[in-house]
Amino acid sequence: MISRELYAKIKYIDITTSRLVESVFAGEYHSVFKGKGIEFDEVREYMPGDDIRDIDWNVTAKTGVPYTKRYVESRELTVMLLIDVSASEYFGTAQKQKSEIIAEICAVLAFSAIKNNDRVGVLFFTDQVEKFITPQKGKRHVLRAIREILSFKPRGKGTDIGAALKALNQIVPKRATVFLFSDFFTSGYEKLLKISHRKHDMIGVVVEDDREAEFPKVGAIELVDAESGRRLYFNSSSGRFRKRFSKLCKDSVEERNHLFDSIRMDHIEIRARENFVDPLIRFFKRRERKARNV
């Protein structure tokens, strides 16, 4: 039985994200993430405006009346949410932790997917694969996934994106649309990301807190690495320290984005203090323009 607090969070996300999906994202999602192709649906009488190339000449010859073939989009997409649940994702200096924002974004994507009759699956990872939820359709399945995202307690604390990608490629053999949620503050996953992006449609989603890029001036301070437990002492009043901290963060972001660009992998950057709706809309618009130019 779930707690009242968890139930309230699930209800809040259900209501708010369902409204967003109905008003904004379902149509955007459908136009960007196409199905596997076009498949035959039925034969019906020819109507003015129908493409003459679709006329079924065999049926027309038998009946003496023009008949045309009708086709529909074959969707049957699988959407996978790969979620980094390492200790660094449970950080936040805004109103919400990064993990809570990730849960809301996942809900928007999942509800958009099932609105378009697609399957949704989830894979949680830290420095190991923590849990896999088989891709399925339906609102009940999505609500269960959201509950898991909000309440999941990982065993590990570190981050191993490579292990998650390796598991994805083994568990999901057919091409899927994959949203990879992580801060990407790790290494050693680059080769597997390239392989995975050739097999799947990979999209990186980075939720960033401002304090991960700019350190406040608060004097002497002890920092604890949430993943390794290592303790470090700094004088944050030192301009030299803050400048070096900012440069390290900037270099990390540039290296990450260079990797994404080099393999032509789309990514979304979301600031914890900002509304995630605008960055998501920009992403959908960007994907739509790219699809038109192909």
The backbone outline, from C-alpha atoms, is elongated
The rounded Rg comes to 23 Å
Strand and helix order: HEHEEHEEHHEHEEEHEH
Sheet of most strands: 6 strands, mixed
The share of residues in helices is 40-55%
CATH class of the largest domain: Alpha Beta
How many β-strand stretches? Answer: 10
Please, what is the oligomeric state? single chain
* CATH homologous superfamily descriptor of the largest domain: von Willebrand factor, type A domain
Number of domains: 2
Can you characterise this structure?
A six-stranded mixed β-sheet has the order 5-4-3-6-7-10, with helices on both faces. A two-stranded antiparallel ribbon has the order 1-2. The termini are far apart. The chain has helices spanning 4-32, 57-63, 98-115, 139-151, 161-171, 190-199, 239-262, 277-293, and strands at 37-45, 67-74, 78-84, 119-125, 129-136, 177-181, 201-208, 220-224, 231-235, 266-271. The chain has 294 residues and is an alpha/beta fold. A hairpin with a 6-residue loop joins strand 8 (220-224) and strand 9 (231-235). Helix content is 44%, strand content 23%. It folds into two domains: 4-32 and 76-293, Rossmann fold; 37-74, no CATH class. The chain is elongated.
Tell me briefly what this model is.
The chain has 294 residues and is of the alpha/beta class.
Q: Which secondary structure elements does this structure contain, and how are they paired or packed?
A:
Blueprint: H1 4-32, E1 37-45, H2 57-63, E2 67-74, E3 78-84, H3 98-115, E4 119-125, E5 129-136, H4 139-151, H5 161-171, E6 177-181, H6 190-199, E7 201-208, E8 220-224, E9 231-235, H7 239-262, E10 266-271, H8 277-293
Parallel strand pairs: 3-4, 3-6, 6-7, 7-10
Antiparallel strand pairs: 1-2, 4-5, 8-9
